[in-house]
Amino acid sequence: MNETNLHFDVVIVGLGKTGLSCARYLSKQGLNIAVTDSRNEPPELSTLKNEFESIPTYFGKINLEVLLASEQIILSPGVSLDNASIKKAIDNGIPVIGDIELFCRNAQAPIIAISGSNGKSTVTTLVAEMSQQAGLRTCVGGNLGTPALELLNEATPDLYVLELSSFQLETTFSLNAHASVVLNVSPDHMDRYASFDDYIGAKHKIYSGQGLMIINQDDDVVNAMINDSRQTMTFSLSKPEGNNFGVIKKNDELFLCQGDKKIISDKELAIKGEHNIANALAAMALASSMNISTDAMVNVLRNFTGLEHRCQLVRTINNVNWYNDSKATNVGACIASIKGLCELGNIILIAGGDSKGADLSSLTYVVEKHVKNVLLLGVDANKLAEVIGDNVPHELVNDMSEAVSRAKKIASPGEIVLLAPACASLDMYKNYQQRGEDYILAVHALEAD
């Protein structure tokens, strides 16, 4: 095709799950679309060709000529707005939006929107299950599971529950959620953002519009996002003020409550750890915005055992508990995992991978206080070793199998082996799920003494 004569209504940049969902959605609108991707063989290429043989594709680079020949660009979240070709298109006045923006323009039901550095998927799943338990027709997706645009193919529900990443929020401008939350903010994706403030700014966009703002009072960054002109509800691991959500301690037992009303004891929660108490409180605050009963909330919290690769108990061998938290892809998640499990026994930590340029220094105190030994692997193992310092025994290992084998030799009965890498997985694995599966396989291969 002669690129000098090109003209497209829309060009989709990136052909992963999100890009494919955009192609399907826009094709139904009868628009003239094209797809470009920096990869020669993007993940959804064969599916696109099977479904839409006539859609022109431009691979191997993000094709600037194609971008400049478009009326609008739909940018997949994996591609940065700082990409040189994207910046050139923006400079030429071409609008750049994402799939969540398209979704927000067309959704006909209330949206509950959830973001944060850690806990997004757990809270999204909890809210969806609570609303379903209450009898509401609920569609759930976004950054978790089903791409948002594919939710529009279903009959209009009572509620949409969306997990939204900072990358998705960057290109979203029309979000006006019924209720929204930033669960927490800790340095992440510092290979993508010029500064921590830029990352915070992307997260803050979830509070656009006029809906209810759910605020984590225990997180200084999130607390600073409060808008006095907006309706807000807070959650905290302390005693709540007014009708907000929090925790009351009585006779050595913790109760999650709204105001003075006790809802559930922490002992009744199927998910364990302080961070999961916070996740449960956030989920209840969001659910309450839809008038979901406390009975529905409690039923879910008693039965929800957590998501795969998120503080998942894999096996107990010789009274040593092996936990898989491969989803702990940043420092904040690793710290939350350690704090959540440290009361159950000494921890042998398996960590490492690609730190994505993040500041790892906040690990020092937590590891020194709560961790017995550390086994390090991956491209940034040495960087982590420097942060851990000399006060906690640590050693480098070549792969997951060696890490698990060494952990078995180090661990004593009553202790915990925890995979919480504090790093992304892409230096060694396809994704964090594959890393978690490798850990699970290695643990199941161990022989009991």
Topology of this structure?
Blueprint: E1 10-13, H1 17-28, E2 33-37, H2 45-51, E3 57-59, H3 64-68, E4 73-75, H4 84-91, E5 96-97, H5 99-106, E6 111-115, H6 120-133, E7 138-142, H7 148-151, E8 159-163, H8 166-170, E9 179-182, H9 196-204, E10 212-216, H10 220-223, E11 232-235, E12 245-250, E13 253-258, E14 261-265, H11 274-288, H12 294-303, E15 312-317, E16 320-324, H13 331-341, E17 347-351, H14 363-370, E18 371-376, H15 381-388, E19 394-396, H16 400-410, E20 416-419, H17 432-444
Parallel strand pairs: 1-2, 1-4, 2-3, 4-5, 6-8, 6-9, 7-8, 9-10, 10-11, 16-20, 17-18, 17-20, 18-19
Antiparallel strand pairs: 12-13, 13-14, 15-16
What fraction of residues sit in β-strands?
A: 15-25%
Mean pLDDT, rounded to whole units? 94
Helix % is: 25-40%
Strand order of the largest sheet: 7-8-6-9-10-11
User: What is the domain total for the residues?
Assistant: 3
Structural class: alpha/beta
Report the sheet with the most strands, covering strand number, pairing sense and barrel closure: 6 strands, parallel
Could you please say which CATH topology of the largest domain applies here? UDP-N-acetylmuramoyl-L-alanine:D-glutamate ligase
Q: List segments where confidence is low: pLDDT < 50 over at least 5 consecutive residues.
A: none
* CATH arch. level architecture of the largest domain: 3-Layer(aba) Sandwich
CATH superfamily placement of the largest domain = Mur-like, catalytic domain
- Rg, rounded, reads 23 Å
Number of helices: 17
Q: Multimeric state of these chains?
A: single chain
Give the total of beta strands. Answer: 20
